[in-house]
Amino acid sequence: MSYLDSPRFHFRGWFQADVSTINNDVTAFDVKTSAQPDPGWNPEGTGIFRFVDCAVTGAFLNGKQIIDPASDPVIGMTIQNADQRAPGKLVDLDPQQQMVSMIFGMQIRLVSASLRTLVRGEYKPAPFANLWARQIEGPPTDQKLGAMYQSVLEEVTWGEDGDSPLLRALRDAAQDRKLSIEFNVFGYGRDPKIPRYTMGHVVGTIGPYRAGEPDHFVLGRQMIAQGPLFGTPAGRIGTLQAKMAADGLSLTADFGNSFQIQTADSGLVDIGPVLLGVLNTNPDSVLKTVDESGATIIAEVPYLGANWFSQTAGVQTFDLTRNPAVAQLLRRFPLVLLSPTKSPSTYDVKLQETINGVYVRADKFVFRINPDETQTIDFHATQFGALLSGSIALSNAGPFLAQLGGMPPNISIPPEGVNVPAIAGKPLIITTGADGYASFVLRANPNGLTVNATVWPRGYIAGQLYALGYQLAEQPPNYLSNPGNFVSILAYSQRYNSNNASPTWYGDIRPLFAQYGKLYPIMSKYVVDLSDYRSVVSRIDALTLAFSLPEADPNHMPVTRDLGKADRAIILQWLGMKGADGLPPLGTQPPEEPQAAPVAETEVKDDGLLPLQKAGKTAVIMKFERAGRNPSKEKDE
């Protein structure tokens, strides 16, 4: 079960993402250069991610849509974040991988009109997926982008049910103290001149979770949009997922991140009738058109209905009970979204399920790993939504990630930092069982990364990026892959020996803190100046707590989660030490080193970008497009 199953409820409102932009250039981490980092459009961002003015707008139970609070009091209840701690944080994996922004430490509550918390859960940290140019009009900045987040709420606790049949049914259906959640973000405000600066629109769905299912995608039907990576798809409809009920009597599809919007605050763009159907054959390519003999229509997608998007978050269930033949076709042939053409009995294919219905996904696809640490990457393979036994080919996706992140400096060096397959080697094959599941144990080099600019060109930043590509080993010809389906890995370095018995400020701590003092001016301005010894030792208790908190905690330090376990350990060790003056040891100040010249760049840094396009996803997208890459073919590299 997932958020596409019943019972579920939908919400709509605003989100705030107060991201910091001063650290978006990787070379800004080099404190030994004379270069000053470009502050970007929001240099004093706090990193906060939270929901604002969100309320339940609709629900689905026992095959029926619910929109009236008289039918169920869950309608109108508010979706809020934590009431007894800090909001969540939005964090990029790395300045050279900003396309998997991840939410940490967010708690979500369902609150009744009497301000009672009826449901409380911890959002399992997860990044966005399926980023695309959703908005037609408006400034050419991140405001035009849309994306989706899917994860689970963990450690769910239930209060009173508020006399809601929906909540009682949801509590009974959920397993492992989890709920499934998906939400879509769009219409983000990047311009400081507008009232909703750092805020955007959100619609989402919460439904049941079943033990053993993926946390971050649905084991169902996957429809991948054709077109440029992050751009507008050829059919003007974005990638989506759907799921057929176990009894074959209904099909539920999520259009929440699929239809374009005209402006940030407008409704969905009218592109004419859109029909959900199933092909009557299993073609070996993505079709452009089909006649009425080649497809069976299931129903029209009611995307232009009054309040449809608000009340459903784009999640629509289609009843198949009156057409049992469709259920049989769906088990063997691809789903399609169609639009009528001027030619009689002919349809344009706007979106088509993957060829032969096969699909493989890594559940979690962003990893942070310490030296000598192991983590497991879980893969799930399906065919027309059913579990698929087969082989998965793993490869090195470093070249693709390097192009996406921009260069210099080089990434994936040294190659033995993690055990991804070598670039020049053959793909590594793993095999799924009858349950469609396979795993790969990701392992970081026990010796960490060599801090040597000639070997590892990112010695001034506490980690290195790697990427793992994957696809079905016997993937059909002409297969259209989701170009975002690769695993991003940040392997932490170990710049300092955590077994050092006598760390000092000058010898060990200041080199770590100097970066954060430079890159996070809001902390120096309002909390503690991390570049100043006296300021740091005046906040020993607060810093000890922050550096001790787990990665998922909203107050974890550093907020960017880009400091490894060994470096955090030596910071905590030093904070706990007391010299003759009762303070952590200062050590001997080294002679000041002359600052190096700014790092040379191989491309024009501005690259013609407007001020509001810098330091954001739009800058990454534009540079990627200008490089002339073809994302649909990147899997083979």
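(ticket continues) Second input and output from the same batch:
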Amino acid sequence: MGRWHLKSNPKRKNGKEYKYYEVAENYIDKEGKHQKKRIKYLGNLSDEKIEPLRLALKIFNGDNLVFALLDKIKYVESKKYLDVAILSHIYDALGLNRVFDIESNKELGTKEVAKILTLSRCLDPQANYRTVDWLKDSYLPEIMKIDPERYNKDKIFRELSNISDCRVLLQKHFAKLSREFKDGDDIDIYFLDATTSYFEGIRCDLADSAKDKTTGYQDKVILIFLVTDKKGYPVMWDVFGGKARETVEFKSIAIKMCHELGIKEVTFCFDRGMASKSNYNLIESIDLKSKFITGLDKDQIETVFDLESFVKNTRPKLIKKFKEEISERQAAGKKKFIKPVNGFYRLGKDRFYKDLGVMNGKRYVVSFNINIYEKMKTDRLNMIQSTCNTIDKINTEYHAAKKDRDDVPLENIITTAISKYRLKKIITYEVKPVKIKNKKDFVQSYEVKYSINDKELHEEEKHDGILIYITNHTEKLDDMYFNVSAGQIVQHYKNKYLIENAFRHLKSFADLRPFYVWLTEHVKAHVDICMIAYFINTHIYHRLSEAEISLDRFYSLIKSFSRVCRLDTGTGRPVTLLKTLSKEMNQVLKLLGASSVAHKSNLESLNIKMN
């Protein structure tokens, strides 16, 4: 069923305009075409009469209740209930109130402000001070039993410092929950990564002039370091100035995890940006007694792996076998696994790996992803072709010159075109002067002579799809097999996407940026609130995954049922109604253990009735 909406049809009669209304439904038919049908004709209604109906219809969409009350509704008010009630229930169930309960004698203290800011960050990300109006538009004050008038801008900024002071307690609590949620596995693994963010138009005591990872050089940049467990739950984070280096700050994060959270004798998984000999030594030290899995830089690969031999002898065989297996599987309609090729085993649909063994105390595993190889190769050829087309177009323009041309702008254009795709080594060029004859005389112009360096192209291409993992998981079960297999090493590093998703979530869903605060403790508190929101969202994701209900679907669903409607039907007894919940909505409540928020007794305590 589609959404119901009011459709007006103004008509003039005797010089006066009348508005005739109907309730219509937009929907998509079986052929995928947009259609519209009338649900109910309402006739001529005044603005005074139509406004409460418009709001009632918005809340009770698809519900005939609005028609039953059409002649009785005097006014309508609405406030958010279900979304804040569910998030409040989850927040309390995770024990987050205990983390910030540092001023229990206050009616509205740190724990209340932290909860309001977190729930707002989950449901309607915005500047902290704007949550004042957001709070008043919801049933959260009634649920939390607080006076919303005590919650104001000054109160928020005073409590941000206290929230920042609770960071270690919060991280300890998250680490404890992480252990409770952990599934049985061969490795206790944690993923580490860092990202940058920046401030717009406001000073920041913490930020430095530095390069932001997504937007380039900025005046005010900070570095956010994050650690998640294998399910994506955040367990530790910190904020540094924009000039901080990931390889250096890794040390402080790892030591804090060990001493403050008691996380040691685990496996750290991180990308090549944090890899260094000093960090390897730190992880293996007497304090941490831990393991690591990371990758080698491209220029280190050939120190442990015969890449040239792989390109000539193994890669063609893997590609051939892969393509044969695809066609055979399509013909047979079932899976057929490829046998090892030159020691390379299969992992998943398109990845192959080989254990290179232990060298100088470290173990190396190589993986080759055919789809990534094909994409990188195709993308590079497309970039080369695009650059060559640009140069050809410029040559055509300069050959048609009507007056003398300058070579300096041409040099800049070509350099920019080649640098755009990082093809300086692959495309070589020379700008040469030429005389162009026009009708009257010769004019000075230029042409670009260019060529493709096949040797450099080969050097670039041979690294495509290849990744070498380095680890200190060197213990063996026996003479043949390692405790942790090569396939497990590859799979764990592959799961690093969880922390990459965390940063995407923080920057988009939780709306980490822009920052509306600038004091160091306030900036850190803002990041803390975003991390709590991310922890809650990760928890919701895992609880709903068995029903294949996505996080986006969850928020869309609870917002559609969120608002309660207070109707005055002229009886002197206004009634507050919650729209009847759908089967899917009730399923969500059950999976989250939050069915009580829609229970009759709970609703009656807030003077709400279920329609």
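Agent notes: The longest helix spans residues 370-399. Residues 436 and 442 are 5 Å apart (CA to CA). Closing as not reproducible unless the customer responds.
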